[in-house]
Design brief:
By secondary structure, this protein is an alpha+beta fold. Helices cover about 25% and strands about 25% of the residues. The protein is globular and about 60 Å long.
Length: about 400
Amino acid sequence: MSDLPQKPVPFTTQKAFASRLTLATLTGRPIRISQIRPSSPSNLGVAPHEVSLLRLLEAVTNGSMIEVSMTGTIVNYRPGLITGSAQGSGANGGVIRHEVPAACTRGVSYLLIPLCLLAPFSKAPMNVLFSGPGVITSATTAGDISVDSVRTAILPLYAKFGILKDIELRILRRSNPGTRGKGGAGEVQLVFGHQVRLPKTLHLLNPGRIKRIRGVAYCTGVPASNNARMIEAARGILNPMGADIYVFSDVSSAPYIPSNDKANPNGKTKTGIGFGLSLVAESSTGCLYSADVASPPSGGAPPEDIGQQCAHQLLESVAAGGTVSLVAAPTILTLMSMSSEDVGRVQLGKDVLSADHIIDLGRDMKALGLSSWGFRETTTGQENDMVVSVVGKGVGNVGRKIA
């Protein structure tokens, strides 16, 4: 007699939408998300960036079932096997081409971070090209980090779990948010070729001392002097903290998109114009702390303010304590839960642990059958830090186990 299908785990509202879909895919548990913007007069139901994430999950998995209600306020998701860019599973020539719609207001990191969590557990290497008029590579006002911070502050953390080979994030065309924060017409490619059966158990308890600061100042469609002004303003704050500081400057032209002008149907217009700064501080024990600020879509912010704001944000990230920054904590905790059946430990700042999305992540993990977290005070005298213990579930890469 065949096993009865699992009952979907219920969730409500669009809060932590991407995180819940990612955890459901990793654990193989079906979920049902209801009350997604039920009372919004203009944006009822799932948003364009959430639809784009659902399409991406459908492309990198085999056998997934996605049902969206007529109003878009209810999503039923039954995950399949993570196949990556395997032939016959949506890839063309070993590359999955994912087009982001123009109405998207979130940065492409909203799609990249969940995809990076799925990639180590894929049956085949992951090679996804993000294109289309909705790709925003910079930081956004919605809280998304830039692609530079994903590359320099998120992907290096996978090496602590034994996942470090054939991983590359290429920025083929930069873009900032377009008019009213929508679209950008950038282009990004993620190559993730290191698949594992189980991640290694993590023990990260020593934050160390900051030894270097690196960063990228970028601008699209504006003079290169904006980069120099951001870098000078940031260094004015960071130079007294340490001598090993280097910020790279990247200048690119603005991408073009069709203008949709009836008088000139073949005309094109510039989009994604702006500038921003990404900073990453590395400690003596390999811990990373990042900061990201970009110019608002409405304009009006001078480069000096962006540079100073980013430098202050980096100092706040370091001052929050722990061995992991707030933006990287969900990635670390998720990988720890998916590792072998052993106790992993990580030291986090109390400000990081008390963040709403970290609390929601712990609750969602428990609802989907993953282990609860244990807490204790540190023994090193750092009063603002806590040691979080996570028991791995040993689920691992089902695709490699079947193969």
